[in-house]
């Protein structure tokens, strides 16, 4: 399991403000002290003037970590480079990577990832993005190459292209949860298993819908509230089964949802805005759902009349 930092700097969806920074540093320190050493971020994480804030905070927290140098040196950062329309040359991706390294205070990224595919609307740009990522690898700016929001067909294409450049595709990140486990997601998982690619599961709590905290009378602020108002009535059977497993195992809803992702062979990267969320997420470690519980959860998920809205940049 890793930790996602989408919320760090994002005001629009997650209500970030800079007064949260001291507690976010404590979240980081707690996660590292408990053995979490993969942190996922992106150069586009942050709202408006806070663009890149997530990377900046991670860089600060790594430098300020009070533990040993050995532990600090084993922290792995995976960041993503946005397919902005002005990034049309391989050198633009290299420049983006160098910008991320500067904000993070690092000399090399553990994983450099393309944030989304441009193949649906700008296929020539997509080729430049692939070559730019390979150039980052060749120049030693990234230890491994990854992609995000690529479907199974595009995964095969980019893996073949990178292989031709002598660059193994190490990871693929998609929205993956009990409410995002349809045919496309499961096929992507199969492709990853076939090609030796690690699947990183983002939004394993379905933007918080699987946290058990919300009802029709208690919704989050902003666009998540509007989405949850539509989805909550449709996913009650799944939430009910999750609740039964929680009571039987003395676990919480987020812990069950995250553990299911691990049982499927993925690396989930739940976010945490405060110490309470971080501690709860850590409770997903050290145990496993049984095969029968996994099947029961998936059966309930299949009965849900609606699933999570997918990223608009997700490809087939």
The gist of it:
The protein is an alpha/beta fold and 316 residues long. The chain contains 13 helices and 8 strands. β4, α6 and β5 form a beta-alpha-beta unit.
Could you walk me through the main structural features you see in this protein, from its secondary elements to its overall organization?
The chain has 316 residues and is an alpha/beta fold. The protein contains 13 helices and eight strands. The protein has helices at 11-14, 21-33, 53-64, 69-73, 90-104, 123-138, 152-164, 183-195, 223-231, 236-249, 253-263, 275-282, 291-303; strands at residues 3-4, 38-40, 76-81, 111-114, 145-148, 169-175, 198-202, 267-268. The chain has an eight-stranded parallel beta sheet with strand order 1-2-3-4-5-6-7-8. Helix 10 (236-249) packs antiparallel against helix 13. The two termini are 26 Å apart.
List the SSEs and their pairings:
Elements: E1 3-4, H1 11-14, H2 21-33, E2 38-40, H3 53-64, H4 69-73, E3 76-81, H5 90-104, E4 111-114, H6 123-138, E5 145-148, H7 152-164, E6 169-175, H8 183-195, E7 198-202, H9 223-231, H10 236-249, H11 253-263, E8 267-268, H12 275-282, H13 291-303
Parallel strand pairs: 1-2, 2-3, 3-4, 4-5, 5-6, 6-7, 7-8
């Amino acid at each position: 399991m890793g930790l996602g930092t989408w919320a760090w700097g994002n005001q629009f969806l997650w209500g970030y403000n800079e007064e949260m920074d001291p507690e976010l540093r404590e979240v980081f320190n707690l996660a590292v002290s408990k053995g979490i050493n993969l942190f996922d971020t992106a150069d586009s994480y942050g709202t408006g003037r806070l663009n890149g804030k997530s990377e900046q905070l991670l860089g600060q927290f790594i430098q300020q970590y009070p533990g040993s140098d050995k532990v600090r040196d084993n922290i792995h950062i995976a960041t993503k480079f946005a397919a902005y329309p002005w990034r049309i040359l391989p050198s633009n991706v290299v420049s983006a990577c160098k910008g991320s390294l500067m904000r993070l205070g690092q000399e090399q990224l553990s994983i450099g990832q393309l944030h989304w595919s441009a193949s649906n609307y700008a296929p020539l740009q997509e080729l430049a993005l692939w070559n730019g990522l390979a150039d980052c690898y060749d120049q030693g700016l990234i230890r491994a190459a990854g992609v995000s929001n690529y479907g199974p067909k595009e995964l095969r294409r980019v893996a073949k292209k990178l292989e031709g450049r002598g660059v193994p595709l190490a990871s693929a990140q998609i929205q993956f949860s009990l409410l995002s486990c349809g045919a496309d997601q499961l096929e992507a998982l199969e492709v990853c298993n076939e090609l030796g690619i690690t699947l990183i599961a983002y939004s394993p709590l379905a933007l918080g819908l699987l946290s058990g905290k919300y009802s029709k009378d208690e919704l989050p602020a902003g666009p998540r509230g509007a989405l949850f108002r539509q989805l909550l009535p449709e996913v009650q059977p799944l939430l009910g089964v999750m609740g039964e497993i929680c009571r039987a195992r003395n676990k919480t809803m987020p812990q069950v949802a995250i553990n299911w992702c691990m049982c499927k062979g993925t690396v989930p990267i739940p976010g945490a805005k405060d110490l309470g969320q971080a501690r709860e997420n850590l409770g997903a470690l050290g145990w496993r759902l049984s095969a029968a519980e996994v099947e029961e959860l998936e059966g309930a998920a299949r009965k849900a009349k609606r699933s999570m809205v997918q990223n608009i940049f997700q490809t087939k």
